[in-house]
Amino acid sequence: MQQSTKAALLSGLIFPGIGQITTGRKTCGWLFVSFTVVILYLVISELILKAYSVIETRQKKGIAIDAESVSKATSDLIGFSDNLYLNTLLIIFIITWFYSVVDAYYFPKK
Questions:
Q1: Domains of the chain: which residue ranges?
Q2: Could you give the CA distance from residue 63 to residue 93 in angstroms, rounded to a whole number?
Q3: Tens digit of each residue's pLDDT (9 = 90 or more) over 50-80
Q4: Alpha-carbon distance 25 to 95, whole Å?
Q5: CB atoms within 10 A of CB 7
Q6: Which of 7, 32, 53, 107 could be cross-linked to 17 through a Cys-Cys bond (beta carbons 3.0 to 4.6 Å apart)?
Q7: Which residue has the higher pLDDT, 20 or 86?
Q8: What's the rounded Cα separation, in Å, for the pair 91 and 89?
Q9: Is 83 helix (H, G, I), strand (E, B) or coil?
Q10: Alpha carbon distance, N-terminus to C-terminus of the chain
Q11: Which residue has the higher pLDDT, 110 or 25?
């Protein structure tokens, strides 16, 4: 298997930037890894904030709090059409992951 194919598979199946790191393009790879980690942090932070707001609302109303109901209420709050910030982050995440694969395949270290 060619080095560029291995790099693309690593970046596509494991984590963005891993393919670049294994082929010797460490700076580019770590940039992909760092950017992806930041995006994931922002997404998870947004989801946690939404879950906390659901829990707080339920506590004020005296509604029982369990993981399933909080999960359902949170997923209703972050529906795809409602949350522009979260949607933008997820689209940037997908584009970054895709570009990492393309970059690993077409621009391997020579």
A1: 3-105
A2: 35
A3: 888 888 888 888 887 788 877 777 777 666 5
A4: 20
A5: 28
A6: 32
A7: 20
A8: 5
A9: coil
A10: 16
A11: 25
